[in-house]
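Hey, resending since the last one bounced:
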Amino acid sequence: MPQVLNIPTMDTMNDDEFFAFCEANRRNGMHFERDKYGQIIFMSPTGSIGGARDLDIAIEVGYWAKQNKKGVAFGPATGFTLPDSSIKSPDVAWIRRDRWEQIPRELRKKFAPICPDFVVEVMSESDTWNEQKDKMREYIVNGCQLGWLINPNEQAYMIFTSQNTNPDKQAFGIINGGDVLEGLTIDLRTIFEDIG
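The structure tokens again:
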């Protein structure tokens, strides 16, 4: 479960300073996000099984994106500055190429000021549904078109869209990217086969 740390807030740490803070601590294996109120959230490292699961879904989306060429896929260490000023790093993200190319190259080197069109969050052992559903709703409010919340331990997932921010859980099966990621189809039963 993420911890909110009592360290400098947005009032005392601007975007460049927060980026430098994250970069300095990344070398120590620390990972941070920032909420819309400026609170810094420490994200504990992913366990080995969780890391393998994150990579599996990232590979699928990344391979699809390379073939499709209509956008850019990002892995779990990538931070984005959302319109509400929060900085989030989903487990997987994808942005349409035309939107990505509108961002100046210098800003792309830091936490690009854009909300991904698509995000995936893969729940770890310590995550709760309510906590992660709130995070998915934040992505949608900030402009994300499609979000997958996946719980490998329960073998269940939810699909979030602007039309449905309170989706039902569904049992693992074939999931697709709909109109946002045309042609992307993944069988979650195969991707998240037990590796533990």
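Residues 48-68 form the longest helix (21 residues).

Sorry for the duplicate.
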